[in-house]
Amino acid sequence: MCHALTRATARSARLLPGKYLLPKVSMEVTTVVTKPIAGQKPGTSGLRQKTRTFMGESYLQNFVQSVFDALVSEGVAVKGGTLCVSGDGRYFNSTAIQIIIKMAAAAGVTRVWCGTGGLLSTPAMSAVIRTRDPAGGAAPIGGFILSASHNPGGIDEDFGIKYNGENGGPAPEKLTDKIYKNTTTIAEYKICSGLPDVALDAPAKHKLADGFEVVVFPCVEDHVALLKKVFDFGAIKKLFERKDFSMIYDSMNGVQGPYAKAIFYGEFGAAPGSCINAEPKEDFGGHDSPSHGHADPNLTHAVELVAAMGLNKMGLPIETPKPPPSFGAAADGDADRNMIMGSKFFCSPSDSLAVIVANAQCIPWYKGGLKACARSMPTSMATDLVAKKLGIPFFEVPTGWKFFGNLMDSGSAAFPNSPSYIPFICGEESFGTGGDHVREKDGMWAVLAWLQILAAKNTDPSKPLVGVADVVMAHWAEYGRNYYARYDYDGVDKAAAEKMMAAMVAEQPKLIGTTINGMTISSADMFEYNDSVDGSISKNQGIRFMFSDGSRFVFRLSGTGVVGATIRLYLEKYTPPTGDLSLHAFDVIKPLGEIALQVSKLVEFTGRTEPSVIT
Predict the structure, then answer these.
(1) 251 with 257: CB under 8 angstroms?
(2) Could you say which DSSP state residue 351 is in?
């Protein structure tokens, strides 16, 4: 691991208020001969591999140099620019930051921003790029986020890197394609290897040489400041003052811990113990922790939270030694995902998105009403019903937050000929929800949205508390319920998974109009997205089968795994307000799942008889 500024170096430096000016620092650029390394194609969430792979010779350096070269070819002002670099705190985070700082200096960057401890959540990185005052310097050209999101951390686990542009959002495909092409032809990288490592443990300005400095700032300040503009923190604090309201928030030993403590303790005065697993750890707690180091906010991995809220991993009620809190939530490793729970009640991400859209006007940022909303294609169609009633444009996009980015930037200088669709809310079934305040999904935003909704429905402390279950059930009573579940098959042989998908596509025309187990397939296709903002077309985005009763199932190969392939099967069945809305989702969709397995021949192709995770 790279270490912080050594004591000897600090003693020899001239210490100024908030500054370190290091003597005799070499800014000499070293050119290192290298060669392409296979497999550096960024996916929907950047480049992910095993940590030891990233630690290998030139692996990280090749990718970072390829990014800088792609930016220069796109006309981005790298020389003289400001760059943000931080991550979720997983193993190799601090070492990678020091390498990137030295490569940024070699590329001509004049200022690097880092969060304290080298920490920034993914939504906080977007907030920093979009809102942080450059204080006389150049506005940031973008930032490197060091994270593999919800994947486990540790020397034998996963690491990742992605580049976000000047709008704070993930790099567009045009840029990631250039980055990948560069990785296949790279012959050298540049680095200022004589620069010392920079202390990241406290806010400071480290002027390493004339024309190059590293600014370390409090990792929570920009994101929290932005969220205070989006929400009414005073109204939420009144909710916390109710004697019948309690909550538990699980940061799962990821990067969210400092943000959770700053907001729930510092802003709302939450009771001690409300924030659990709030200390970021390099391995997210490791294999011996209840989550086994898998910082993924779902019923399977958020073990402590789920048990405390009175449910098992199937979402069924269990006995608890004391009454569960009235509200529960969790974040993943890089804090862009969220899980929402009530006392003995799990709110699915799809329902959560629909409820937030339906109640958005109680949130100050959206008090004038939404102009549009969107969901990823596999996400349940519950939000569609809300958009129809509100009379606002609705978009169905491929999986990957970058596809929401153009809609958020519509009508801006980037797309002046497009109508503006902001204020805007969007989300994915994979526990990601957010708005147009940043260009990433935002786990804390989703939790605060729910707290704002609950605050609006609980203004009279003399009346019984309206909880998460009450809000969701009232929503179902108005719009109906989209029973929904996702089956994940992790670590599947990639070739076998691809053969299964190809075989399904080939069979789709023959299956339309056929009836299986009493259900008739009305249509089937491979989803294709035509972006109305920039005119781009994204093909092969998931296999869909729709039934005459409105049910559907979807198959996708996920791009967030590291080993093998992950097959995701999405199952959905709609029940109108007049139907039975009280059933368990996993029971309702099970017959549909059996049809999907029969059509896909998943067991025959992969040998898998059970999913790894059901959510």
Answers:
(1) yes
(2) H
Rounded-to-integer distance, Cα 604 and Cα 135, Å: 61
* 139 neighbors 153 (Cβ within 8 angstroms): no
CA atoms within 13 A on the CB side of 527: 20
* Cα(336)–Cα(431) distance, integer angstroms: 9
Q: How far apart are CA 32 and CA 64, in angstroms?
A: 13
What DSSP line would sit under 411-459, residue for residue? TSTTBTTSPP--SEEEEETTTEEEETTSSS--HHHHHHHHHHHHHHT--
Q: For residue 263, what is the DSSP state?
A: I
| Amino acid in the structure at residue 93 | N
Report d(CA 351, CA 581) in Å as an integer.
Answer: 13
Task: Just list the catalytic residues.
Answer: 149
Per DSSP bridges, beta strands 30-33 and 519-526 are unpaired
- Quick: pLDDT tens for 218-250: 999 999 999 999 999 999 999 999 999 999 999
Task: Please tell me the number of Cα atoms within 13 Å of 463 on its side-chain side.
Answer: 9
Structure tokens at 60: 């990280």
3-state secondary structure of 330: strand
pLDDT band at 551 (very low <50, low <70, confident <90, very high): very high
